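stage 2 :: seqdesign
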């Protein structure tokens, strides 16, 4: 029996702590307010909302998911200027949403969450300002927030300015500079496209070639935007239609072989033909299947890499020196500025977060063999803790916004049960979590991610921490999770 039932009351409001005012944290806050639950705090380490879209400001930053599907379902944006809008436009969307849904009064800017401990049936949350008690603890910390600096010898000896792509220094003018860019993932490709021809010289250091899916960035006409703004049902329909299209094409193509995969892979191979010089094309051709690594979606990269002021360097890097990068063939590539688009730790999932669950179990201990959970959002022995976009979320085959929203609805279901006194605490059972993870392991061999490449999708044991089924199945499983899979108090 819950505390509420014992007291004879009929309703109570859960006290909820949320980490991060990025896309997931904002979504959680909105759903709480819509449900009339106002007792929550969103802790945000920075001074603005927006998460990824606040932090990343590198040249060429843009979305590579079609914009019509990159919005909350309850707030489709009629005003996207293009199919793949730039970072500032996406940041403005989240900033606007935070105002529209009255979230600012709940956000504590400049306050970092260090961890939390489950004690006496509640969470004690520790932040830079002290400790506070909550009924529920929800992480919206996201996946790609811990930068990966390359372990290249001599990196600290470089004489000029250098930075990671997530901390771009806009105070350094680049127009006449020799710029070195390390990394050709989604970020490196966008930066190459933006800088090529606009700096003195650009050296692009490629360790592994990437397949690039050609996605033209069509403008949304003024008439289209006006129509979507004036007729909300069409705006909502456009949002749903793009999500469905994404699910049915890419969402299925990556998880099982078939015509969708062949079509997408064919498009990547065809795209590479834009490189006229056969030798350069050979150097840009990956030796693994398209989409095995996180696919890069871009339309200007191959033109950019062929620009006379741009050089592809694919000889391995030996070390960084004061004057530039020396490759293993002995050549010193002299540089004024060094930009590192070397990615993020894709297995951090909110860490370093010192989480202590039942019996003193820490998150690091629970994840000794890699991040895992129940249905991508909950963890055994961590009652009333939920991680939005947690391990194995379908971000490898769907729009992360839709994923986060489905997970938020799942969390809201438990908050509602708490409000009405059906539960005080809930956590998935270890058995249900094992069953879920074993089923995923069995499905993984069909996916393109295990066809022979290295990527940030993989855990230390070389297994992708991704969702091997359709995005629809993710929503369905969250919506129909059996009560027998949970321990409730
Ligand atoms: P990434 O995909 O992990 O790429 C990192 C790049 O750096 C790779 O080319 C890697 O080479 C290279 N690298 C790493 N360490 C190196 C070293 N020591 N020496 C030489 N090269 C090294 O990182 P990312 O490009 O930042 O993208 C991460 C993810 O962010 C993407 O997959 C995507 O999910 C997301 N993203 C999204 C958008 C968007 O528009 N929505 C834009 C940018 C990023 P190897 O391949 O050999 O490891």
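stage 2 :: out
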């Amino acid at each position: 029996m819950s505390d509420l039932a014992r007291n004879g009351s009929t309703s109570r409001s859960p006290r909820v702590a949320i980490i991060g005012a990025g896309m997931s944290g904002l979504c959680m806050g909105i759903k709480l307010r819509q449900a009339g639950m106002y007792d929550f705090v969103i802790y945000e380490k920075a001074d603005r909302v927006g998460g990824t879209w606040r932090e990343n400001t590198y040249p060429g930053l843009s979305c590579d998911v079609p914009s019509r599907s990159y919005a909350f379902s309850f707030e489709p944006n009629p005003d996207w200027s293009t199919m793949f809008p730039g970072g500032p436009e996406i940041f403005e969307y989240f900033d606007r949403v935070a105002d529209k849904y009255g979230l600012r009064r709940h956000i504590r800017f400049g306050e970092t969450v260090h961890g939390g401990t489950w004690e006496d049936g509640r969470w004690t949350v520790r932040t830079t300002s002290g400790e506070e008690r909550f009924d529920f603890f929800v992480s919206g910390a996201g996946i790609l927030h811990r930068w990966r600096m390359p372990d290249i010898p001599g990196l600290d000896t470089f004489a000029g300015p250098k930075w990671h792509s997530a901390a771009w220094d806009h105070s350094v003018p680049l127009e006449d500079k020799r710029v070195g860019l390390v990394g050709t993932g989604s970020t490196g490709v966008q930066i190459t496209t933006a800088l090529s021809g606009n700096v003195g010289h650009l050296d692009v250091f490629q360790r592994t070639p990437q397949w690039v899916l050609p996605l033209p960035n069509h403008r949304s006409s003024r008439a289209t935007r006006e129509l979507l703004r004036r007729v909300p049902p069409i705006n909502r329909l456009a949002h749903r239609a793009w999500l469905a299209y994404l699910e049915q094409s890419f969402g299925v193509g990556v998880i099982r072989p078939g015509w969708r995969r062949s079509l997408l892979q064919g498009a990547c191979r065809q795209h590479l033909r834009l490189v006229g010089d056969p030798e350069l094309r050979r150097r840009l051709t990956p030796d693994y299947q398209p989409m095995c690594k996180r696919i890069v979606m871009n339309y200007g990269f191959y033109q950019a890499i062929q620009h006379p002021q741009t050089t592809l360097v694919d000889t391995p890097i030996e070390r960084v020196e004061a004057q530039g990068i020396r490759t293993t063939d002995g050549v010193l590539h002299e540089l004024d500025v060094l930009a590192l688009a070397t990615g993020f730790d894709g297995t951090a999932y909110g860490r370093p977060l010192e989480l202590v669950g039942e019996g003193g179990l820490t998150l690091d201990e629970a994840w000794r063999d890699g991040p895992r959970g129940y249905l991508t959002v909950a963890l055994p022995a961590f009652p009333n803790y939920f991680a939005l976009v947690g391990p194995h979320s379908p971000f490898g085959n769907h729009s992360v916004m839709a994923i986060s929203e489905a997970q938020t609805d799942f969390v809201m279901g438990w908050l509602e049960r708490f409000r009405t006194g059906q539960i005080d605490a809930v956590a998935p059972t270890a058995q249900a979590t094992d069953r879920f993870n074993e089923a995923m392991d069995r499905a993984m061999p069909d996916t393109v991610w295990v066809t022979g490449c290295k990527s940030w999708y993989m855990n230390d044991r070389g297994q992708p921490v991704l969702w091997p089924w359709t995005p629809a199945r993710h929503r369905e499983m969250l919506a129909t999770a059996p009560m027998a899979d949970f321990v409730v108090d």
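stage 3 :: structure notes
- The longest helix spans residues 400-419.
- The chain has a mean pLDDT of 95.
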